User: What shape does this take?
Amino acid sequence: MTRPAGRTVLAVCASPSTPSTTQRVLDDLVTPHLARLGLHVSALALRPLPAEALVHGDAGHPALASAVRRLEHADGVVIGTPVHKASFTGLLKVFLDVLPRHALAGKVVLPLATAHDRRHGTPLMRGLEPVLASMGGPRVAPLCCLTAKDLDGGPPPGATALDRAVAGFARMLRDPAHTGLASHRRPTAPRHG
Assistant: This one.
């Protein structure tokens, strides 16, 4: 299959809420920034996917099969999730469970979290990193964890944590040698369940 000349990114929103701060960040901030960097971005909201098919892992359901194909054809994936009880949402968990075992192999992933406190991002990544690693060992950019304070006013564009995270993710997509932060760890015993 022929890909577009530019790199393609799927922006996945794993928020079960509507309206959703996570969806707003992806739509209003992340997608336009990636587009300005020359990347082709499409959105995938998990909330409208059929709950019964997700819970039962019915990968053959047309809506889930379509979502899996879209992820399969992306070079990079932004995974946006609110922090729920120091972890990612159950909606993201059931979606990741539906994906084929090596669905993220060869891809670059940017985890993006919205939280009340930036410190909640650390336990979220402890849970998410081994799951991502078990799905083909994608190159994972450092987590960008945003709070309401980050999203209300703040520094000018180009100076925020989100701008830095998106720019770093784009560099990783363009340059296979670029690995994000040198201190970014990979888990040694991945699991997927």
Observations:
- The two ends are 30 Å apart (CA to CA).
- Helices lie at 21-36, 51-55, 62-72, 90-98, 121-133, 148-151, 161-174.
- Residues 181-193 have pLDDT under 50 and may be disordered.
- The chain has one domain: 8-174.
